[in-house]
Amino acid sequence: MRLPCSLWRNFHGRVVPSRYLANMAAQRPSHVTVLGEQYPTDHMTNISPTIVSKLPLKLHTQPSHPLSTLRALIESHFPTYAHLSSLSPLVTPYQNFDLLSFPADHPGRSVTDSYYVNKDLMLRTHTSAHEVEVFERGETKWLLTADVYRRDEIDGSHYPVFHQTEGARIVSANSAGMKEIEEDNERLAAHLERSNIEIEDVPHLSPINPCQPAHDPKHTELIAKNLKLSLNSLMLHLFAGRVGATAQNPLRVRWIEATFPWTTPSFEVEVFFRGKWLEILGCGVIYQPTLDNANVSDKLGWAFGLGLERIAMVLYSIPDIRLFWSQDPRFLLQFKQGEITTFKPYSKYPACFKDVSFWLPEGQGLHENDFCDLVRDVAGDVVEDVKLMDNFTHPKTNRKSLCYRINYRSMDRSLSNDEANSLNAQVVSCLQDRFRVEIR
Fold first, then answer.
1. Whole-angstrom Cα distance, residue 292 to residue 340?
2. Of 271, 289, 290, nearest to 281 (Cα)?
3. How confident is residue 23, by pLDDT bands cut at 50, 70 and 90?
4. Which residues of 254-281 are buried (b: 16+ CB within 10 A; e: fewer)?
């Protein structure tokens, strides 16, 4: 599975069996400590110790870290924008979903997809959770970079914590605001005309990517054009030097019509990099109810969001997303603030895989994200990936059996078979205690 489009990714939720919730409730402490504060737990609480331990780290603010350099590179392209990077990851579901017009039954609200402290407090799943509050406090042009949290599988390109940069611009929806946009469009178009870039565009508006009912189509066309010109310029800034763009071999960028709950018209942007198209970001004209919620109903604008890890893995040739969290000097000392250099692998230690096969209690399911969180809590980043190998239902008893293969491989040292066996035994023990499974 390829890495999804950061801020604009779709969530994939499943029904949570009631017995699963009952099991979790039986083991839940009355309070949980997050960022030094105690919070009461309830039926929604699912934040794990591993995730709590990541909250203070803020990789995007650590000098010389690849994510910090990439953040600074993006910010340098928008020097007149406010640069924000210190907002708390704790938000309400109302901020994270309702203010952005997420449907009440959207799967992203599920405990299998998002991390909850309790029913009233959660970890942000995207930087857009702060969009309304930033507009409401008067910012009209801003970038926000932050750590975001989503329950996910374990492999080399997925991690339950990742980092996003969101950018937004709004102007008055009147002749003065449109004149400002038109002048900026002329400036940006002239810059791109002189640059080594080839753009495959799509219409600013179309029947499948329409103007919002509350908006003037002419205004929307101007805003969408400004969005595209601004982001084409950003792609040039990020990638042209890395591909050696020339007049004969320009940087190739293409736009694709898309659908998102919080923008319309909406688009995705891809860059042709090292022989293939790479999905970079999602964007669009901001949904008017979002601006209404921020008390800026007289404004019109655009927003985009991108995942830093996705781009950094490509620019730095970093092969495994776990490496961003490494404290090994052999990783950290390879990088300097402001410089993008090719990562030099310092090890490729052998893998050691173990299978865990078990029967589920009658009538109970087990979401893959729950299994992966359990594995992370036990073994941390020593686990390279987890794969479902078998999903079997007994034809006579109707009992369900699952088999997962856990691939243990440290990024920093050789892992002995005895160590892998010990970790796997702990996984099995926790699996039995937490989910009452029967090991096969």
1. 40
2. 271
3. low
4. ebeebebbbbbbbbbbbbbbeeeebbbb
Average pLDDT value for residue range 276-287: 96
Binned at pLDDT 50, 70 and 90, residue 5 comes out as very low
Q: Cα separation of 220 and 264, whole Å?
A: 9
Between CA 320 and CA 364 the distance in angstroms is: 34
Share of the chain above pLDDT 70, in %: 94
Check if the beta carbon of residue 198 is closer than 8 Å to that of residue 240: no
**Strand 197-200 versus strand 251-260 pairing type:** parallel
The CA-atom distances, in angstroms, between 267 and each of 202, 224, 326 are 9, 10, 34
CA 409 to chain centre: 24
The answer on pLDDT for 6 being more than 90 is: no
Q: How many CB atoms lie within 10 A of CB 44?
A: 20
The band of 27, judged by pLDDT with boundaries at 50, 70 and 90, is low
* Tokens representing residue 122 in the block: 């959660």
* pLDDT tens figures, 311-345: 999 999 999 999 999 999 999 999 999 999 999 99
**Roughly what angle, to the nearest 10 degrees, separates helices 368-379 and 417-435?**
130
> How far is the C-alpha of 93 from the C-alpha of 99, rounded, in Å?
9
pTM: 0.90
What are the tens digits of pLDDT across the range 193-226?
Answer: 999 999 999 999 999 999 999 999 999 999 999 9
Residue found under tokens 């946009």: 181
Q: Say whether 329 sits in a helix, a strand or coil.
A: helix
Q: Map 119-184 to HEC letters.
A: CCEEECCCHHHHHHHHHHCCCCEEEEEEEEECCCCCECCECCEEEEEEEEEEEECCHHHHHHHHHH
Q: Is the peptide bond before 261 cis (omega within 30 degrees of 0)?
A: no
